[in-house]
Amino acid sequence: MAGAGEDALDGLDARLLLLLSDEPRLGVLECSRRLGVARGTVQARMDRMARRGILRGFPPELDLAAMGYGLTAFAVLEISQGQRAAVSERLAAIDEVCEVHATTGQGDLFVRMVARSNADLQRVIDTVVAVPEVRRTSTSIALSTPVAPRVRPLLERLAAESAPE
Amino acid sequence: MAGAGEDALDGLDARLLLLLSDEPRLGVLECSRRLGVARGTVQARMDRMARRGILRGFPPELDLAAMGYGLTAFAVLEISQGQRAAVSERLAAIDEVCEVHATTGQGDLFVRMVARSNADLQRVIDTVVAVPEVRRTSTSIALSTPVAPRVRPLLERLAAESAPE
DNA sequence: AGAATTGCTGTGCAACATGGTCAGTATTGT
DNA sequence: ACAATACTGACCATGTTGCACAGCAATTCT
């Protein structure tokens, strides 16, 4: 065995995930061909990663902008002490709220939301700040996204670390 | 036709996307069965949404925490005027930087990053703030995620809007 | 050392899904 | 009334899936 942390991804796992990232609709068979391993191996790896919770599935990736929700905004909320759960719940009820994190530091909650237009965004922000336990908010609009959500570099590093024996 | 905005998603599109969100590995045939339409119809809808850029694909969804990257942190960067591109480029070169947005408001760039441990996070943050054009930073650590990235509510609204004739 | 375990390979098989095409039908637009 | 568009239901050849099997190598246990 590798000896070190055991239940970590090895090079093959990482290469498989990279392959699937690039061409997600590949079947198990194609993957096995491209990776140069047997089909059963790929199947076993995918099962194992799924069991471990690493590979959660293959959800459709939607482009909100293409769906009409061209605006993204972020908000940092400061809330009344002990109201995190209550506020989170209310935020979760707003369709346009796509993500909420509780954070350390000045703000307490960090919110990502989308909207169709400036007017729509105004409405969404108003809805968010209308949550009673919210004391102070500071919002900003995303102008561009120099780095879109990605995991690839980490996978590549894993693949590089484990492979070059 | 619907009469209104034409190139919008209709109820069937939305229901298809919802279905795929719930069970992403469903084949075209299964989808057609569950939606009660012909296979060709599903195929046509998926092709159309793909052409329009709405449906970008089916990338594997990975759980970074399960992969060992249990910590997520956010940073707001204030940078020297006109250096956005330069800074973005440097940030993109850092593996642990998973997302960067340029924003309005006080901060200029908003960064999401991950790390394996506190020590690792320290290192990552140091790397980020070491970018020369960065003037001021404020980082916070994600303690929890009351609302994980989601699109579902928007799809459900679409499905509800178009369907109930 | 010898035995057992584990992981990968390569094969075979039946069941099923895929992409393609085609004709028939309803609905919408001119 | 005619053309265009969208959906249906069927067909086909091909490829893929899930499963089980035996052979092999490396590693770990006793």
From TrEMBL, chains A, B:
GO terms for biological process: response to amino acid. Gene3D superfamilies: 3.30.70.920, Winged helix-like DNA-binding domain superfamily/Winged helix DNA-binding domain. Keywords: DNA-binding, Transcription, Transcription regulation. One of its GO terms (cellular component) is cytosol. GO terms for molecular function: sequence-specific DNA binding. Residues 9-70 form the HTH asnC-type domain. InterPro entries: AsnC-type_HTH_dom, Dimeric_a/b-barrel, Tscrpt_reg_AsnC-like, Tscrpt_reg_AsnC/Lrp_C, WH-like_DNA-bd_sf, WH_DNA-bd_sf. The keyword Cell cycle does not apply. SUPFAM superfamilies: Dimeric alpha+beta barrel, Winged helix' DNA-binding domain. The keyword Transcription regulation applies. This is AsnC family transcriptional regulator. It comes from Halopolyspora algeriensis. The lineage of its organism: Bacteria, Bacillati, Actinomycetota, Actinomycetes, Actinomycetes incertae sedis.
